[in-house]
Amino acid sequence: MKPILIVGGGIAGLQAANILHQNNADFILFERQGTLGGRVSSTMKDGFILDRGFQVLQTSYPEVQRSLDLSALNLSFFESGAMIKGQLFFNPLRRPFELFSSDILTFRDVFSLARIWFRLQGDVSALDGNKQTTQELIESYSFSNRFKNEFLIPFFQGVFLQENLTQPASLFFYYLQQFLYGNAAIPAGGMQAIPDQMASWLPTDKLKLNQEITALDAKSITLKTGEVIDGEAVILAVDLPVVAKLLKADIPATLGSKTFYFSAKSSVKQPALLRLVGEEHLLHFTCLTDVNPGLAPEGKSLYSATSLTESSEKEVKTALEKQLPGQKLTFITSFDIPHSLQRVDGYEAIKKSSNGIVLAGDYLEFPSLQGALYSGRKAAEEILART
Ligand SMILES: Cc1cc2nc3c(=O)[nH]c(=O)nc-3n(C[C@H](O)[C@H](O)[C@H](O)COP(=O)(O)OP(=O)(O)OC[C@H]3O[C@@H](n4cnc5c(N)ncnc54)[C@H](O)[C@@H]3O)c2cc1C
To answer: Ligand 1: residues whose CB is within 6 Å?
Structure first.
């Protein structure tokens, strides 16, 4: 029997490979780049471990728990909460008294939060058919303007990497559930440790790096060199813009972001929280060494700052220094990520034009590690079910 061909070595492709391998199905994975992991990658610079775009591992994601060896990742955890426009906000399920002592919460806000909490007790996937956007959903509850504009909206702008919150309301509920019940973490070696772990469970001769696929159908792929390889089936696990190009389909816009890294002399340790600012040049920032001091050389702090606009290093640094009075920051590097999160609606055209090619990728589910892992599992299981 010919091998199953997987195109793309991001989290979705690696997950598909692992499921096939666990079921003794022969496969070959082709990745365009020289490394595996796709949008999850880290680099080293001057002794700092830098993720390509700030991101975290939500440990409550069901596929994360099912697929990864979390203890081997040696995780460091964020506190459950956020600092929003200078106001500390802890997860009400972990620190209920802090919620009631918050001066931005009115009785109306507590009541609306309780209504949302009750809704979360049901099956949130049942909300998939709900056509409301996150912004519309937030407006439909009677939150005070202050709580809405200084907490809820900036928080979800940070999560969705999106200013106008047009992502579906079902996604809002899904993420809220994960934040309330899970923990946000970073592996000791940076986020790259996740694809590294997944790849370590696979035979290396089945992982073909620096191999770009330029055309494909349900049973074969064409490499950039012109070589055609036949397979039993093909899983296309590339990012959405490449899917659209290969399948000649229109796609909705994807969401881009830019992450800047700065170092400073060691600061007084703060609660390890994401800090949402919601300004033009600074959506959110965090001191990563408050979470894991091992990400920076001894005696240094590492800050990540994310912006949604075409901000320059100087604009972001000025905005960040305003948030950290007295702290002298040194720019390390920045990463421009044109397709950070892939929107979750409007993929019917792509699914229709797949012509027997099995699709995997976060865009098919919720754009997240959970979505990527789950889509990879589903793609592999669909092929296994045929045999
Ligand atoms: C800045 C940022 C922040 C994020 N924050 C979070 C977060 O906090 N929590 C969370 O859960 N998720 C987060 N995500 C989302 C998460 O990283 C993605 O959902 C996930 O990594 C997507 O995996 P994928 O395999 O679907 O796609 P990708 O990672 O895009 O993988 C596709 C792979 O296909 C390869 N490829 C493309 N074209 C070809 C070709 N022609 N031939 C061969 N190979 C090809 C690519 O090189 C790539 O390796 C974030 C993403 C970014 C970028």
So the answer is: 7-13, 30-33, 38-40, 53, 55-56, 58, 212-213, 237-239, 242, 257, 337, 340-341, 361-362, 367-369, 371-372
Asked whether residue 175 falls in the same domain as residue 277, the answer is no
Query: Is 288 inside a domain boundary?
Result: yes
For the CA of 33, the closest atom of ligand 1 is 47
* Consecutive 10-residue averages of pLDDT for the chain (387 residues): 97 98 98 97 96 93 95 93 76 68 76 82 62 88 87 82 82 82 91 98 98 97 98 96 88 81 81 83 91 93 89 93 90 89 68 87 88 96 92
Give the per-residue pLDDT at 96.
Answer: 67
- Report how far residue 378's alpha carbon sits from residue 288's, in angstroms, rounded to the nearest whole number: 34
Which strands sit side by side in the sheet containing 233-236, from one edge to the other?
Answer: 207-208, 27-30, 4-7, 233-236, 358-359
Domain boundary among 182, 200, 229: 182
Instruction: Give yes or no for a contact between 12 and 372, defined as CB atoms under 8 angstroms apart.
Output: yes
Q: What is the CATH number of the domain that holds 70?
A: 3.90.660.20
Domain containing 223 equals: 4-40+192-252+343-386
